[in-house]
Specification:
The complex is a heterodimer of chains A (323) and B (401). With 323 residues, chain A is mostly helical. Chain A folds into two domains: 48 residues, no CATH class; 188 residues, Orthogonal Bundle (MetI-like fold). Chain A has 13 helices and two strands. In chain A, strands 1-2 form a two-stranded antiparallel sheet. In chain A, α1 packs antiparallel against α13 and α10 packs antiparallel against α13. The radius of gyration of chain A is 24 Å and the shape is globular. Chain B has a four-stranded antiparallel sheet with strand order 1-2-3-4. With 401 residues, chain B is an alpha+beta fold. The chains are: A mainly alpha (323), B alpha+beta (401).
Chain lengths: 323, 401
C-alpha cells in the first residue's frame, strides 16, 4: 500500500509539470497582458507601460517567462510575484485560504449531514409520497446554478427585512476582535453561502445514497439478516447502510477541491473573502502568476483528492487492494 | 453498467399494430407491464421496449414536453415577443413588469390591457420609482405590426403575436425592462436561443472528438490507447470552472458575438468530450472481441466500416444517455461564464448574461424582476435532468422497476 501511495505521488510530478505548461499556455494565449489595462488610462503614458512590461519580464518570450517561473518554484519554492499586489503570490493565496477552507468545510459537513439521513429515509420508504417529494426536491437542487440560488436567498433575506447578506460579517464587526456576538453574526451570514454552495452537492449525494441503499437492500445478506430475526433498525443501519455508504467515500475525497474551485461565482455574488473572487480579479487584470498558482493549486488538490479517495476506499473496503 | 448492450440500432423500427400500444390511449399500466415482460402476444423490439420504459417515467415525459416547448418558443421568439430585442425605451428604464389586467374593479374588459406607468423620483431617497395610473389603460392587441425580424429558415416578417398599440403610447413589459429600457420578456426569449443551443453544438462537438478519440483508443488499444488515456486523465484533473474562465479570457475582445458564441461552445466541450471518450473506449474494448466484429473483419471489412457500421451503432444507447446528461452541465456552464461577463457578449444575450444585471444588492432590492431569466435556466436544466434520468432507465436492459 505504502509503495502504491509513493508511486502515485511520483506520478503526480510529471502530471503537475504538464498541467503547469498547459495553464501557462492558456494564459499566454489571452490577448494582452498585465500592462494592457493601462493603455486606456490617460495618466499613464505608453512609455511607462513599456517600462512596466520590461520590469515585470513581460517582454521576454513566453517560454523564458515560464522557465524562470518554474525555476523559482523548484529552487526557492517561490511561486512568483503578484503584479497588482506587489507581493509574493503564495502569501496572498495563503491569506485567503483560511476562510476558503472554513466555508468549504462547513459546506461539505452540511451536505453530508443533510444528504445521508434523507437518502436513507428515501430508500427505506421507497415510492412513498415523501420519497417522491424528496427525489423531486433533489432534482431541483441539482438544477439550480449555485450563483442563482445565492441571488434568490439574498433576495429572500432582503425582502424579509434582514440585512445579513453579503460578506461574512456585518459592518460593525469587521474590525472588532472575536467575541460571542461576532460569532453569532458570522453564523447569521454563513448559512446563505453554505446552502447556496452546498445544495447541488447535497442533491447529488442524496441521489447516490438512495440508489446505493436500494441496491444493497435487495442483496441476499440483507434478506438473511431479516430472516434470522434481526431488528429492522439493525438490519438497516448495521448491515445495509454501512455498505451503501462505502462507494460514497470516493466522492468525499474529491469534494474539497470541487467546492473550492466550483464556487468562484457564488463567492463573487456573496462577496466572500475567499479565494474565488480573488482569482477572478487576477484573471481580469491578467496578474499571470497569481492565476497560474491558483490553477496549479486547484489541479494539485484534485490530484490529492483523487489519491485520498482511492486510499480511503481501500481502507474502508478490504476487498479493494492496489498493487 | 459494464455489460455490453447489443440491441439493433434504435431508429427505423416499424411498430407492430398492437391495440392500445400508442401512448395516447394506453389502456393501463398492466398491459404495458405485461408487454415489457414479454408476455404479450407479440414480442417487442428493443426500440419499443425502450419507448415503453421511457413513457412509464412520468417526470421524463413531462421534461421532454417542456424541452420541446422551450425549443419551439425560442425558435419563434421574435414572433412571440412584443418588441425587437435591441429596442430601447429610454423613458421606461428599469420599469417593473406591467402586468396584464382584465378588470380594474369597476369595469371588465374582455380585451386584456395594461395600465399607464410614469416615472417618478422619490423625493427623499432619490430612487427611481414607477407610478401606476389606474385611470389610463392601454389595450393589448394580438398580431400587431412591429420590428422586422428574420426567423431561422427565412421566415421574414414584422408581425408580433401580441403588443400594445404603439401610436397611443402604451407599453407591455411582461417581465419589466433592463436599465436601457429593453423589454426583458423579449430578451429572455431571445437569450434562450443561445442558452438552449449551446448544449446542442457543444455536445455535437464533444461527440465528434469523443467518438474519434475514444474509438481509436478502444479499437486499436496498445500504446495509442495508453497515450490517449493519459491525456484524458490529464484533462480531467483540471478544475473545470477555473479552466473555463481562464479559457474564456482567451477569446479576443474584437470578435463578433457569433464568433464568441462558438468560442464558448468550444470551451465547454474542451473538457466534456473526455467523459464520452471513456464510455466509448470501454464499449469498444469489449465489442471488438465479439463474434460479429470478428466476422466483419473476416470478410475483409475496413477498420472505418467496422467502427462506423458495426461497433458504433451498438454503443448508441450509451451515447444518447450520456448526451442528454451532458446538457445540464453545458447550460449551467454557459450561464456561469456569461454571468461573469466572460462569455456571450452584447448585442447577443443569454440567460446567464441577463442575470448579470441582477448581481448587485441594489438590483435585488429595487429591480427583482431582473432575476426572472434564472427561472428559465432552472426549468431547462430540470427538464433535461428528468429526461436524462428517464433515458438512463429506459435504455438499461436490466431495469424493471
Amino acid at each position: 500500500m505504502l509503495r502504491y501511495i509513493l508511486q502515485r505521488f511520483l506520478y503526480m510530478i510529471p502530471m503537475m509539470v504538464l498541467i503547469s505548461i498547459i495553464c501557462f499556455a492558456v494564459i499566454k494565449l489571452q490577448p494582452g497582458d498585465f500592462g494592457s489595462q493601462y493603455f486606456n488610462n490617460p495618466r499613464v503614458s505608453p512609455e511607462m507601460v513599456q517600462q512596466l512590461r520590461e520590469r515585470l519580464g513581460l517582454n521576454d518570450p513566453a517560454y523564458i517567462q515560464y522557465l524562470k517561473w518554474a525555476k523559482g518554484i523548484v529552487t526557492r519554492g517561490d511561486f512568483g510575484y503578484s503584479f497588482a499586489y506587489k507581493r509574493p503570490v503564495s502569501d496572498l493565496i495563503w491569506e485567503r485560504m483560511g476562510w476558503t477552507v472554513v466555508v468549504a468545510t462547513l459546506t461539505i459537513v452540511f451536505s453530508w449531514l443533510v444528504a445521508i439521513p434523507i437518502g436513507i429515509y428515501s430508500a427505506t420508504h421507497k415510492y412513498s409520497i415523501m420519497d417522491y417529494l424528496l427525489t423531486f426536491l433533489g432534482f431541483i437542487g441539482l438544477s439550480i446554478p449555485n450563483f442563482f440560488l445565492a441571488l434568490v436567498l439574498m433576495y429572500a433575506v432582503l425582502k424579509a427585512g434582514g440585512t445579513s447578506v453579503g460578506g461574512l460579517f456585518s459592518q460593525n464587526f469587521i474590525e472588532t476582535p472575536w467575541s460571542w456576538a461576532k460569532f453569532v453574526d458570522m453564523l447569521n451570514h454563513l448559512w446563505i453561502p453554505v446552502i447556496s454552495i452546498g445544495l447541488s452537492g447535497t442533491a447529488g449525494l442524496l441521489r447516490q445514497m438512495r440508489g446505493n441503499l436500494l441496491d444493497v437492500l435487495g442483496a441476499q445478506y440483507v434478506v438473511t439478516a431479516r430472516a434470522k430475526g434481526l431488528k429492522e433498525s439493525i438490519v438497516i443501519y448495521k448491515h445495509a447502510v454501512r455498505n451503501a455508504i462505502n462507494p460514497l467515500i470516493s466522492i468525499f475525497g474529491m469534494q474539497l477541491p470541487e467546492v473550492i474551485s466550483g464556487t468562484i461565482i457564488s463567492a463573487i455574488v456573496l462577496n466572500l473573502p475567499t479565494i474565488g473572487p480573488f482569482f477572478y480579479d487576477a484573471l481580469i487584470t491578467q496578474d499571470q502568476y497569481l492565476v497560474m498558482t491558483f490553477l496549479m493549486l486547484s489541479a494539485f488538490m484534485m490530484l490529492i483528492g483523487n489519491l485520498l479517495a482511492d486510499i480511503m476506499l481501500a481502507w474502508a473496503d478490504p476487498r479493494i487492494r492496489y498493487q | 453498467m459494464s455489460e455490453t448492450f447489443t440491441n439493433p440500432p434504435v431508429a427505423n423500427q416499424p411498430l407492430p399494430k398492437i391495440p392500445g400500444k400508442m401512448p395516447g390511449k394506453t389502456p393501463g399500466r398492466n398491459q404495458n407491464e405485461a408487454l415489457l415482460e414479454g408476455e404479450g402476444e407479440v414480442a417487442l423490439s428493443q426500440a419499443q421496449k425502450i419507448r415503453l420504459r421511457f413513457m412509464r417515467h412520468k417526470l421524463g415525459v413531462v421534461g421532454g414536453a417542456i424541452i420541446v416547448f422551450l425549443y419551439v418558443v425560442v425558435t419563434l421568439a421574435p414572433f412571440l415577443s412584443p418588441y425587437g430585442f435591441e429596442v430601447q425605451h429610454p423613458e421606461y428604464s428599469l420599469a417593473p413588469p406591467t402586468g396584464i389586467h382584465f378588470s380594474n374593479g369597476k369595469r371588465f374588459s374582455l380585451r386584456p390591457y395594461t395600465y399607464s406607468i410614469t416615472k417618478a423620483r422619490d423625493p427623499i431617497t432619490l430612487e427611481l420609482t414607477y407610478q401606476v395610473d389606474r385611470e389610463k389603460s392601454y389595450p393589448i392587441y394580438f398580431f400587431v405590426r412591429g420590428e422586422k425580424y428574420d426567423i431561422i429558415g427565412g421566415w421574414k416578417g414584422n408581425l408580433h403575436l401580441f403588443g400594445a398599440d404603439r401610436n397611443s403610447g402604451g407599453a407591455v413589459f411582461l417581465f419589466g425592462t433592463d436599465r436601457f429600457g429593453r423589454d426583458l420578456f423579449t430578451r429572455t426569449l431571445i437569450g434562450g436561443r443561445v442558452s438552449m443551443t449551446v448544449g446542442v453544438f457543444g455536445i455535437l462537438l464533444s461527440f465528434i472528438i469523443g467518438i474519434l478519440v475514444g474509438g481509436v483508443s478502444g479499437y486499436y488499444g496498445g500504446w495509442m490507447d495508453n497515450l490517449i488515456q493519459r491525456v484524458i486523465e490529464l484533462l480531467r484533473s483540471f478544475p473545470r470552472l477555473p479552466l473555463w474562465l481562464a479559457l474564456s479570457m482567451v477569446l479576443p475582445p474584437q470578435w463578433s458575438s457569433v464568433a464568441v458564441y462558438f468560442g464558448v461552445v468550444t470551451i465547454l466541450s474542451l473538457i466534456d468530450w473526455t467523459g464520452l471518450a471513456r464510455v466509448i473506449r470501454g464499449q469498444f474494448l469489449s465489442l471488438r472481441e465479439k463474434e460479429f466484429v470478428q466476422a466483419a473483419r473476416a470478410i475483409g471489412a475496413s477498420d472505418a466500416s467496422i467502427i462506423l457500421r458495426h461497433m458504433l451503432p451498438n454503443t448508441m444507447s450509451y451515447l444518447i444517455v450520456s448526451a442528454t446528461l451532458s446538457f445540464p452541465g453545458m447550460i449551467i456552464g454557459e450561464s456561469s461564464i456569461s454571468f461573469l461577463g466572460l462569455g456571450i457578449k452584447e448585442p447577443m444575450t443569454s440567460w446567464g448574461l441577463l442575470l448579470k444585471d441582477a448581481q448587485s444588492l441594489e438590483a435585488l432590492n429595487l429591480h427583482p424582476w431582473l432575476m426572472i431569466p434564472g427561472i428559465f435556466i432552472i426549468v431547462a436544466v430540470l427538464a433535461f435532468n428528468f429526461v436524462g434520468d428517464a433515458m438512463r432507465d429506459a435504455f438499461d436492459p436490466y431495469s424493471k422497476m
